[in-house]
Predict the 3D structure of the following.
Amino acid sequence: MDSSGNWLTIDQVAEMLGVSYWTVYRLVKAREIIGVRVGRARRVVPESVEAYKARLIEEAA
């Protein structure tokens, strides 16, 4: 994993995917995307969001 990229907030991922905060939170809980806790905050690994999008596209094809 590239450590130079910044982790994303749940809100940022929700905006990227065009879904709600809670949908992203459920995706993290279901381990569809990788989220980590940093203190009390939750952050998402950007590469996992891209991988999730690629899986969705592949499934739709």
